[in-house]
Amino acid sequence: MLSMSETDSLARGLGTGDAVVVGLSAMIGAGVFAAFAPAAATAGSAIFLALGVAAVIALCNAVASAQLAQSYPSSGGTYLFGREVLGPWWGFLAGWGFVIGKTASCAAMAMTFAAYAVPAGGWWQRLAAALAVALLTLATLRGITRTARLARVLLGATLLVLVLAVALAGMTHSPAPSPLPDPDGFLGVLQAAGLLFFAFAGYARIATLAEEVRRPEVLGHAILVALGVAVVVYVAVGLALVHALGADLPSSSAPVSDAVAAAGADWAAPVVRVGAAAACLGALLALLAGVTRTGLAMARERDLPAPLAHVDPVHRVPDRAQLALGAVVVVLVLTVDLRGAIGFSSFGVLLYYAVANLAALRQPAEQRRWPRPMQVVGLAGCLLLAALLPAASVLAGLAVLAVGVVGRLVALRRR
To answer: Does 23 reside within a domain?
Structure first.
């Protein structure tokens, strides 16, 4: 491992509340405005069972991440945990899958923001996405505490809009909407659970920021609080959408807006659009911060180019990694539409959490905070959801991993 001096380390400027905000910003993103429609299409009336399955798997993954982060309070998340507990190759597989998959997610989230902010489409939409990435990249270069403050503002705007939407959608309907149809068997429930899991699986962003939390021992608490709040928000939004739209929910392209309209509050549709845009920006900000911290850890071990391990001496952030990520995402949003073609991102996330559960399962007794069966359930759940992904997504994920493995083998041989 590369030696790390005091000036190479990141600033421990985050409190417990800041860590919770960063995690919530990642979880309560665009998914809360869009995930329920495709989930209802397969789970039908069992959509809350699907949400429960997703929440259980997320909880198992979250406690595994929390347990590991308390023992290894440095940047990198599961990349670091995998290296320390299982070995370098396990860490690399998790880190590579996370960095590549989430870079694509950054571009997709920027384009989703632009779709809400510039509904007319065209090049203006792409330029808006690129501008958002550039501005948020500059914000992350100003220090982690400023990043957390901006995340707090965006999260607050999103939650206010969701509270308004839930209140309006909960109004009495006359006549009541038709109920959701029966699910497409238990397989449909599991597929819906996969969609909902990816929508609020951003608690890993807290673990990747472990080197910047003032008291690493509170990481577990922050992760669980963030996940608990996110689940409550998703349940409340889901209940409101089912109540307002019923059988129309699976076919809705903008369910929160449609639910508000069904309550006769068309005036609130622009407000919902603003909330969705704020949610996208909050999730994008958390993604930019999380990806670069994993990239920093990989660069320290030379699994990515060593210059990316540079830390700005004033603001104590991984400035080169942040600029490189911002540049790549800007190029992607200007040239490629990834909103419907990032299945391998889901594959990478599941691999990332599978490694986290396996590493937590292998931790010695003195480092354990949670019973081993939780890691077994988390590991099995990740593998099951990965197996249920579309074949094209699995093949794309395996291809991306193969590129990374070959690249690392070449680098090790040259070294």
So the answer is: yes
Lowest mean pLDDT among 99-103, 210-214, 250-254, 401-405: 210-214
Two tokens, residue 29: 């993103």
The CB-side HSE value for 212 (13 A sphere, CA atoms) comes to: 34
- CATH code, 84: 1.20.1740.10
Q: Is residue 50 part of a domain?
A: yes
Which residues face 213 on adjacent strands? 14
Is the separation of the CB atoms in 318 and 141 below 8 Å? no
Separation of alpha carbons 346 and 358, rounded Å: 18
Q: Which of 31, 30, 33, 76 is nearest to 289 (CA)?
A: 76
Whole-prediction pTM value? 0.84
Residue 291, phi then psi, degrees to nearest 5: -65, -40
Secondary structure of the chain: what % helix, strand, coil (to 5)? 80, 0, 20
- pLDDT score recorded for residue 142: 85
Q: What is the pLDDT of residues 296-351, one digit of tens each?
A: 999 999 999 999 999 888 888 899 999 999 999 999 999 887 655 556 777 888 89
With contact defined as beta carbons under 8 Å apart, do 396 and 343 qualify? yes
When mean pLDDT is compared across 7-11, 70-74, 371-375, 392-396, the lowest value belongs to 7-11
Dihedral (CA of 382, 387, 389, 394) sign: positive
| Nearest-angstrom CA–CA distance, 312 and 318 | 6
The model's pLDDT over 259-308, given as tens digits with 9 standing for 90+, comes to: 998 888 888 988 998 898 999 898 898 889 889 989 999 999 999 999 99
Beta-bridge partner residues of 300: none
Give the span between the Cα atoms of 105 and 288, in whole angstroms.
10
How far lies 133's CA from each of 101, 127, 295, in Å? 17, 10, 18
Number of domains in the chain: 1
Contacts of 121 (CB under 8 A, 6+ apart): 115
Greatest Cα pair distance in the chain: 71
* Distance between CA atoms of residues 289 and 222, nearest Å: 17
Length of the chain: 415
Residue 8 maps to a domain: no
Indicate whether 359 belongs to any domain.
yes
Tell the residue number behind the tokens 């900000």, with chain if given.
285
Range of the domain at 368: 13-408
